[in-house]
Amino acid sequence: MANIHDVARVAGVSISTVSYALSGKRSIAASTKQRIDDAVLELDYRANAGARMLKGARTQILALSAPLHAGTHAPAHMTFVLSVVTAARKYDYDVLLLTQDEATSGLRRVVRSSLVDGIVLLDVSTSDPRTDLVRELGLPATVIGIPDDTDGLTCVDLDFERAAELAVRRLVDLGHREIGLIGQAPLVYERGSNFPPRFRDAFLAEATRLGATVGFTPAPEESAGVRAALDGLSATLPGMTGLVLHCNEPVQSMVLDLLSQRGVSVPNDLSVISACSSFSTDHLNPPLDVIPLPADLSCTRAIELTMAQFAGDVEPHVEYIDPTYVELGSTAPLTSRP
């Protein structure tokens, strides 16, 4: 089946010129546009999707590629899915959800079947094959997350690096110098998810810059693994007085339960921060200071950027959402302890 490269070859123009002509993002010389129109019709490009776009017709449907991987925490994942759907409805768009692990085939199928006007990618990996496909397909698309190669992509995400720095500075400013970090499940790092290493690496770098001693361990979502993670940090950092939890809600609850069982008081004995959490922490025992992961903000902005691409009002770029810190009483100055 013909792709955008074939259209560019037959029309004798660049791939970007074909993309601009089909989307209407930029004005194209009449003779050039005619050659592209002819090539689209000759090759039956994207099952006449190119011809439909040239006529200005839309399906009012967006494809949301949100694959369910091994290790995906479904409640957090679906928070983002629902936020995308809610934001799209404000523009009278419906969302076609693609959840298969082999996500490129699903995207190719729906685009070539002329089912969707644009694409949103969720839970991207550092080297995600979907990003190359998005570049190839030429439809308006926004990535929620920051892959290693952002060239030609429109991306939006929480600034996980600044969030990590914010967590470290909070604890260091309170006098803590031995700080632990419990991260996501090992599978999440192994499959190359983009945000956990971004947070981890920035956390370690900022702690080193500020002269703090730190330890890091991932934690699977089961009690034995969480216990082992906490034991490992305690062995590595026997004087640990600060702890950052960059993990899902069940793991954070298990950590707090273990601390309570061991007679560790939060924040009197240990200051704890919940980092980049998509859930409320005020119901935890005790409630935790949190740097929220605002699914509604990132997903709303992703839809806004996709709509702007329809109008040709935005070029590929990366946007970061500034993190915020919410105090709920789980951190305290080191000097205030008895």
Automatic annotation (TrEMBL):
Transmembrane segments: none annotated. SMART domains: HTH_LACI. Gene3D superfamilies: 3.40.50.2300, lambda repressor-like DNA-binding domains. InterPro entries: HTH_LacI, LacI/GalR-like_sensor, Lambda_DNA-bd_dom_sf, Peripla_BP_I. One of its GO terms (molecular function) is DNA-binding transcription factor activity. This is LacI family transcriptional regulator. Residues 2-56 form the HTH lacI-type domain. It holds the Pfam family LacI. Keywords: DNA-binding, Transcription, Transcription regulation.
